[in-house]
Design brief:
The chain is an alpha/beta fold and 214 residues long. It has a single domain, classed as Metallo-beta-lactamase, Chain A (4-Layer Sandwich). It contains three helices and 15 strands. Strand 9 and strand 10 form a beta hairpin. The chain starts with a strand and ends in a 6-residue tail after the last strand. The C terminus is likely disordered. Bound molecules: zinc ion. The site of zinc ion has 5 residues, from loops.
Length: 214
């Protein structure tokens, strides 16, 4: 388990289980989490470091997708608002390694897009189905960061390089971010050297990849 500073107001926590990542956006002592690690033990560590050691309060927990290896921390922050895509239940019920104890009913659900201003950052959630029906990416231009969840992980093969003609076509800033920003997946943040012909991940662009989880 480890955490690192990704820049002003952003911390990344990496758990042991699948090296699942939780990204914390800070507004003073208030925290919005994007994902919350993959095991109860990792989640307890996250809670201890954020709350006990750093004195923060987690006010909201969002999920890039509602699989158990990304939502383990939700029960540990019972007062936090849970944010998810409206298809979250489909993903939760269809996974192979479901952990019912991690499930919390979201108070906020959205469909195609949603923007939250949190501290100095603007988090732009947009539905980006790929690995799962409910998958969202979180574009944070103020941090030069995209939380891509499991849509960028493992060995990825792009089957189509044509122009995007999907529902994200009105989001050129996200495409630009792919060229200069960070992508966050399991266990790593890496510079993406995307070229013009590389599309954003998602079913409309023909992105396919193997399941990174055993
Ligand atoms: Zn995952």
């Amino acid at each position: 388990m480890r955490f690192e500073d990704l820049g002003p107001g952003v911390l990344m926590f990496v758990g042991d289980e699948y090296e699942s990542v939780a990204t914390a956006f800070l507004d003073g002592n208030d925290v919005l989490l994007v994902d919350s690690l993959g095991s109860a033990e990792d989640a307890r560590w996250l809670h201890r470091v954020l709350c006990a050691d750093m004195g923060k309060t987690v006010r909201a927990v969002a999920a890039t997708h509602f699989m158990s290896d990304h939502i383990a921390g939700m029960p540990l922050f019972p007062d936090a608002l849970i944010i998810a895509h409206r298809h979250h239940r489909h993903t939760f019920l269809s996974q192979n390694r479901r952990v019912d104890e991690f499930y919390r009913e979201p108070q906020v659900v959205f469909d195609s897009a949603m923007t939250i201003r949190w501290g100095q950052h603007e988090l732009r959630f947009w539905h980006n189905p790929g690995k799962t029906m409910d998958h969202v990416s979180v574009d944070v231009p103020t941090a030069d960061l995209v939380c891509a969840g499991d849509n960028i992980v493992g060995n990825i093969v792009y089957l189509s390089g044509g122009p995007r003609a999907d529902s994200h076509g009105d989001r050129p800033d996200a495409a630009i971010r792919q060229e200069r920003g960070h992508w966050r997946a399991h266990g790593q943040v890496f510079r993406c050297h995307a070229r013009q012909r590389d599309p954003l991940p998602g079913p409309a662009t023909g992105c396919r990849y193997p399941n990174p989880h055993p």
